[in-house]
Structure formats: structure tokens, C-alpha cells
Amino acid sequence: NINPCFLICTTSDSGSAVGIQAEDGTSCGGDVPGMCAGGQCLSVGCDWTIGSSRVIDRCGVCGGDESMCSEVEGEWSDSGSDFDYVEIVSFPIFARNLEVLEFGSRDNYLAMVGDTSGQGYINWDRRIQQPGTYVVNGGLDLKYIK
Fold first, then answer.
1. Which of 72, 51, 76, 46 is nearest to 61 (CA)?
2. Sign (positive/negative) of CA torsion 57, 59, 62, 66?
3. How much is the average pLDDT of 106-126?
4. What is the C-alpha to C-alpha distance for residues 17 and 9, in angstroms, rounded to an integer?
5. How far, in Å, are 60, 75, 112 from residue 135 at the CA level?
């Protein structure tokens, strides 16, 4: 078993190695929900309390009971002017578990743009992108299916 709180560094020229203990408070890394303390990886909850079993619920609330989620559903039928972008919906900045479906005409494309930055993520600036997974908002995976 590899201890994520014990780091081994090697030199590129001679290959010599030295082991050091990660600083207390360092994340155990990856998918390990923990932090290093005294050279050991200790489990922590989403509240970053050692030994806590709190987890983030599907609404994004640490220790939540999934009661803070809200579902928004609707239909849009206005086609807008030719070659215009038409805002259909906007999501709160910390929205999660989003599913946007397009029905009907294959002549239109959904586009996604950042609210404050104006940064386009998919099908933006008159460029049509292929379905796939795109990294948006600094690290979130957006799965685009057409």
C-alpha cells in the first residue's frame, strides 16, 4: 500500500532518492477523501474535520439532506433570427447535475458560454464542435451529446 503522505523524490541525473513527509493539512490526493497529519492519511468529511463522515449531497451541500435541490423544466420554441444566439436558460454558478436536452430540429445547436467571463465552451463563436467531453469553468467535465 502506497502512503500518499510520504513523498519520494529522485534526481534526474543520478537517480538518487530522498523521502520526505508531506506537510500536515496536505490533501491525500486523487479520490482519497483525506488529509495528511503526522505522516499518515486521515479520513475527513467534506467539512474538513478529521474523522467526520459528512459528505456532499447531490445538491452540493456538505452534510445536506438533498432538500436544497430544485428542478427547473421548460420548453423553448422561439427560433430567433438567423445566425443569432438566443439565451434560453442560465444556471446558478454552483449548479450541478445538469441535463439539457434538445428535441426537434437538427438545424440548431446549443451553445454554452460563461456568465461573467463571456468565455465560450461549446458551439461558440460560430464554431460547431463535435460531441464529446469538454473541460469548462476551470475543471468541470461537460459531456456534450448531439
1. 46
2. negative
3. 75
4. 5
5. 19, 27, 12
Measured between its terminal Cα atoms, the distance across the chain in Å is 43
**More confidently predicted of 144 and 79:** 144
Distance (Å, whole) CA 65 – CA 98: 19
Put simply, whether the predicted model's pTM sits higher than 0.85 gets the answer: no
41 with 32: CB under 8 angstroms?
A: yes
Within 10 A of 9 (CB to CB), how many other CB atoms are there?
9
Following CA atoms 46, 67, 134, 82 in sequence, which dihedral angle do they give, to the nearest 10 degrees?
Answer: -150
pLDDT in tens, 21-80: 999 989 888 766 789 999 999 988 888 888 899 998 888 889 999 888 877 777 776 666
Q: Do residues 96 and 105 make contact, with C-beta atoms less than 8 angstroms apart?
A: no
Residues 79/133/28/68 CA torsion (nearest 10 deg): 30
Please answer whether residues 122 and 109 qualify as being in contact, where contact means their C-beta atoms are separated by less than 8 angstroms. no
**What is the C-alpha separation between 89 and 106, in angstroms, rounded?**
19
